[in-house]
Amino acid sequence: MLDFAIFAVTFVVILVGAVLYLYPVSRYKCGVSYLDGNLQDIVNRGSLHEFLVGLHQDFGPVASFWFGGRPVVSLGSVQQLRQHVNPNHSTDSFETMLKSLLGYHSGMGGGPTETIVRKKVYQSAIDNTLKNNFPLVLKLVAELVGKWKSFPEAQHTPLCAHQLVLAIKTVTQLALGERFGDDDAIISFRKNHDVIWSEIGKGYMDGSLEKSSSRRGHYEKALSQMESMLLSAAKERKAQRKQVAFVDALIQSSLTERQIMEDCMVFTLAGCAITANLCIWALHFLSTSEEVQDRLYQELDEVLGSDPISLDKIPQLRYCQQVLNETVRAAKLTPVAARLQEVEGKVEQHVIPKETLVIYALGVILQDSDTWSAPYRFDPDRFEEDSVRKSFCLLGFSGSQTCPELRFAYTVATVLLSTLVRQLKLHQLKGPVMEVRSELVSTPKDETWITFSRRS
Asked: What is the CATH class of 1-105+333-366?
């Protein structure tokens, strides 16, 4: 079961038994068995990301390893990603991963045309709900910033807790409608969300979920309750015939009731996690640099003046975009992506057979000194360079290949920064260096605290 649990982290797909023309990790050197492959090595390193860091340090930018008896290819540099021929772009890697972990497979076997259509419906639904509900995003952010303004300047503020609440309120109300404006509904959602996300990110990774019947039961109960809640919300919205929320767009499509529930589950889970952590890391990094805060304030003042931000103004906030891009890079926000090879491909002299799982070791690439100067320094100015922006786009963090949940998170984070930085300054607390937990989304291991002071 451990084999399945860890393999699920990279989409639980059955790989063909083809011989890779690569240099696979030595089983003898890693001390791995024929049946387990490198699974125990991944567990020992603490995460798939940490395993990939060591793998590419030892074997270079193109390497393979073993999930049980199955070979997997990992690419660890921008140059190799540019050479990667014919990856499968018909599905979003993060969405596919979550659906596999959740055991959702409806509509996944209908062929590439059906998959592309469903992907377009999903992306369009997210874009439309942002457009229809942008005033609500402004309202929720204004409430949080107003709360922070009321705090004494020396008061320590917990970033993780506050940003998760903001993300949950924003995602649930935009996804499912006004019923989640009620505190009881939010509390119920968060209770189940926390259990599901924790076990997906950790329990499957180290196999501990399968070893504990009580934890497994707790997880399955939370998942069942969440599914029932989403089905109920969709049924309620269908009866109301409204067309402003994410679920409304899905209802208007040809998706089945089950598919609508699954897409709502993926968006609410991924949307909350990515939005919360993008905001957490952005505010954390801003608190470390008064200069970046001042430059961002200057841009906001020039573009917006005293007006609230609007969707049409967001593209004009170029430095704000650079700050968020650098946040994603420096935090390694989503450290691993993967695609199933659609046709036989090639990287340098290495042939990758059709239907091989190819991992993009994004956490490795995002801090590769050959691609980024001073990779461990937070420096939004690096994104002034066209070559850097192109590399970032190639990694799937901007442009047409950006996952829709990340685009949603960028919008919410831009509203947050544009509201906050014009009113308050952020200050970092002295203390231990923040440690990172790299799972499906990188998040601080412990609560992160900052203080605020009013802008004069």
From this structure: alpha beta
